[in-house]
Structures are given as structure tokens and as C-alpha cells.
């Protein structure tokens, strides 16, 4: 599928990969992946699926900023944009004019952001104005190609930005990718919480542990007067934590500067931004939770049994 797309597109400027050393804490975190020597996944220590039951809660921005936070901590990080129908990772990483390099007609060398994060997305391969009008099986095959045919290099974390909902792509990922854990993103209002619960239930049925819930847009603070307002309600993340016994690893503010960073894709000053502390703590808590999770099962065992009764 992607070979034809490569042939139709012109070559773009290449980005260079920058590597960072592992931080000492990561040495105590065991890899949860099986490591077949002939597969690109053998170089990836942990696959973290970031999902939500509802669109519009900031899942992609959380995925990208989680990747940036882990990168700032010294980890080698990649992002797989699995939102086939609405890819936004290229814009958020400032790479929307890039595309993967084709290697030997089969492999893809992924674009690299200014801060050294590698990523792959259907957004690199299909013009921005075009829509991916694909049925579920075709979209799922495209996702697996992006994962299996990308030369990710040595990664401590691969962050997978899932599409919203609980459909074909999520099922394909959990069946065929060695997912270490999941992160569920929500906003505080009840309508978002109801769908976040569905995402938590989905991961439970697929035997994937939810390492944490992220409550996005939890509070807005006026830049002029300093007054804080819970625009979308309060205590949503706490409710999920108490009901489903999953840790609340972050409550992220509604921040204009963060929105601007996502729009322009410039993450070079990320670790100096006032909101960075929230994402840094989220990344540290994820590492802590991941260290407690048992190694993932063999790929292909996360297959739910579906029964239809009259």
C-alpha cells in the first residue's frame, strides 16, 4: 500500500536522529516486550497505548507531550500515530512537511523532530487535504504496516496515539502489537467520563493494564487576574480512580501556551514551559507504574471471546 504512496510523493528534506542516554531510573524498569531477533519490535522496550473513549479530549496532545516529557528525562522515544482517520501527530511535532525515507522498497525511516523524537503516521504519506476513506480492515492493515515496516531504531518507549473509541484499530493493535500498558485520557465532565469508562473496560477485556488516567483540561487560570476556574467540572479523574482502581497520574491545565505549542509544533522550549512540571510528573508516574506491571503476554493472545446470544 505505502510503496505506491512513496512513488507518488516527492522527496523531502531529511531529519537527523539525535540520541539521548537512559536515565538511571529506567535501569530498574524491566522490558515488557518479547524480543524476536528478526523483527523491528525487538528494539522497542515498551509500547504504551494512549486511548480515550471520546474524541476531543486532547488525547493526541497528551501523547505527544508524554513523548516529549520522556525524551526530556533521557529516554529514547518514538510516536506511532494510529489515528488513521485524523492524524495530528505530524503537525504537533512540526513535521507535517516531512515524509519517511523509503529503504530498499520495504522499510521506512521515520521523520525525526527537533528534539529527537521519531514518529510515523499516515499523515506523512497522504496529502493533508485528502481523507483516508478506508474500511476498518484496510485501516488496520495500514496501521500494522506503519508499525512493522518502520525502522524505529533503539527505543525505550513507543507511544501509540490511538483513535477515539473501541473499534477495529484498537482490537488489531492489542492482538498484534506487544502492548506494555495503556493510558486513558479524559476531561472532567460526565459525558467524557462515561466514554473513558468504556475505554478502561475495553483494555480490561483485552488483558491490558491501564497504567494511569490523565485528566486533561482540568483547570483554567486567567493570565490577567490569576483566578482559576474548573470550566469542564471537577473531580472527574478522581471518580475514575476510585471506581476502577486505576491511578490518576496527571491533572493537566487548560493552557493557551500549550495550545500554541501544539499548533506550531515547536517543542524546543518544552522543558522550560510553565506547564512542563505537570507532564514531567505524568511521565515519572508512568515509569513508576510500568515498573510494577508484569511482562506482557505473547503477541496474539489478547483476543477476546465474542458470543452473540438471542
From TrEMBL:
It comes from the Bacteria. SUPFAM superfamilies: P-loop containing nucleoside triphosphate hydrolases. GO terms for molecular function: 4 iron, 4 sulfur cluster binding; ATP binding; ATP hydrolysis activity; ATP-dependent FeS chaperone activity; metal ion binding. Residues 1-23 are annotated as: Disordered. ATP binds at residues 53-60. Residues 1-12 have a biased composition (Basic residues). GO terms for cellular component: cytosol. GO terms for biological process: iron-sulfur cluster assembly. Keywords: ATP-binding, Hydrolase, Iron, Iron-sulfur, Metal-binding, Nucleotide-binding. InterPro entries: Mrp-like_CS (IPR000808), Mrp/NBP35_ATP-bd (IPR019591), NUBPL-like (IPR044304), P-loop_NTPase (IPR027417), YlxH/NBP35 (IPR033756). CDD domains: Mrp_NBP35 (cd02037). Belongs to the Mrp/NBP35 ATP-binding proteins family. Binds and transfers iron-sulfur (Fe-S) clusters to target apoproteins. Can hydrolyze ATP. Homodimer. This is Iron-sulfur cluster carrier protein. It comes from Catenovulum agarivorans DS-2. The lineage of its organism: Bacteria, Pseudomonadati, Pseudomonadota, Gammaproteobacteria, Alteromonadales.
Amino acid at each position: 500500500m505505502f510503496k505506491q504512496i512513496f512513488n507518488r510523493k516527492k522527496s523531502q528534506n531529511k531529519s537527523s536522529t539525535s540520541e539521548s542516554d537512559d536515565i538511571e531510573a529506567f535501569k530498574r524498569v524491566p522490558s515488557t516486550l518479547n524480543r524476536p531477533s528478526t523483527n523491528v519490535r525487538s528494539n522497542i522496550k515498551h509500547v504504551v497505548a494512549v486511548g480515550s473513549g471520546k474524541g476531543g479530549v486532547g488525547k493526541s496532545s497528551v501523547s505527544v507531550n508524554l513523548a516529549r516529557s520522556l525524551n526530556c528525562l533521557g529516554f529514547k522515544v518514538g510516536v506511532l500515530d494510529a489515528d488513521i482517520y485524523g492524524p495530528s501527530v505530524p503537525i504537533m511535532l512540526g513535521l507535517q512537511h516531512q515524509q519517511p525515507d523509503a529503504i530498499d522498497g520495504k522499510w521506512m525511516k521515520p521523520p525525526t523532530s527537533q528534539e529527537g523524537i521519531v514518529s510515523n503516521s499516515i499523515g506523512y504519506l497522504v496529502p493533508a487535504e485528502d481523507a483516508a476513506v478506508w474500511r476498518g480492515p484496510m485501516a488496520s492493515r495500514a496501521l500494522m504496516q506503519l508499525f512493522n515496516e518502520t525502522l524505529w531504531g533503539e527505543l525505550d518507549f513507543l507511544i501509540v496515539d490511538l483513535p477515539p473509541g473501541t473499534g477495529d484499530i484498537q482490537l488489531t493493535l492489542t492482538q498484534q502489537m506487544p502492548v506494555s500498558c495503556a493510558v486513558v485520557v479524559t476531561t472532567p465532565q460526565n459525558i467524557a467520563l462515561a466514554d473513558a469508562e468504556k475505554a478502561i473496560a475495553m483494555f480490561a477485556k483485552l488483558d491490558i493494564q491501564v497504567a494511569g488516567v490523565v485528566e486533561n483540561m482540568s483547570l483554567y487560570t486567567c493570565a490577567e487576574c490569576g483566578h482559576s476556574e474548573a470550566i469542564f467540572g471537577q473531580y472527574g479523574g478522581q471518580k475514575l480512580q476510585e471506581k476502577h482502581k486505576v491511578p490518576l497520574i496527571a491533572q493537566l491545565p487548560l493552557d493557551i501556551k500549550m495550545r500554541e505549542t501544539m499548533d506550531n509544533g515547536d517543542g524546543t522550549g518544552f522543558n522550560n514551559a510553565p506547564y512542563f512540571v505537570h507532564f514531567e510528573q505524568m511521565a515519572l508516574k508512568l515509569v513508576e507504574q510500568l515498573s510494577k506491571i508484569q511482562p506482557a503476554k505473547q503477541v496474539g493472545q489478547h483476543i477476546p471471546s465474542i458470543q452473540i446470544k438471542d
